[in-house]
Amino acid sequence: MKDAFGAPQSVLVLGGTSALGLATARRLIARRARTVWLAGRPSPALDAAAAGLRALRGGAGSGPEVRTVAFDALDPASHEDVLGKVFAEGDIDLVLLAFGLAGDQAHDEASPPDAVRVAQTNYTGAVSAALVCAGALQTQGHGALVVLSSVAGERARRADFIYGSSKAGLDTFAQGLREAMDGTGVHVMTVRPAAVRARAGAEPGPGPLSTTPEEVATAVELGLRRRSRTVYVPGRLRLVMAALRHLPGPLYRAAQPE
Question: Do you know which Pfam families this protein is assigned to (predicted)?
Fold first, then answer.
């Protein structure tokens, strides 16, 4: 259950090696999260991510319990069993859906199977995992599901429309799931970050705005406290995207970076 300050004490990160997911987990550990599950394909990277979190000192002055679970977004048939076992271990306050593939637009256009892999990971796999977790949270009667989408899903760009279309589908799904969970005690929040650079001070990503994993983590925590429905990172991106959505096609294309 959440602590007296409303901070989640148990967290499940779907996409256990995700930079955004791990940054959020680190921030929540500093705010008293005691148990973190990292779900992902077994790998040295997943083990290293877990070890890094275990080494942290949380708000109570001791390190968290960090566990890993084998999870494959591209195997929806396994999701109910794999994730059900996590929830059987105890209540989960927060599920962070953080996995996804950016893909390579030029390559994927020429290789439809690779384009399909992007779509299946970012949309089909996410729909399956989110429905399983939402059902488990509903059974608990409490909890939050945070879906990491992207501003790339708000309007198609020539540079990344395969990735963007998968995020557009995920975004619409999350909106509908939020309505379905209304009144159940389950809060669904969509996060739409700009292009993510590795760290503060790194070279900005493409486009006029960019962000970092740490900035996304801060926005997630604040959004949870406010029970926000949709969070943009950085916040001013909300106004930028409102303008871009209504920009005439020729002007929109001209505004895109080469």
Answer: adh_short
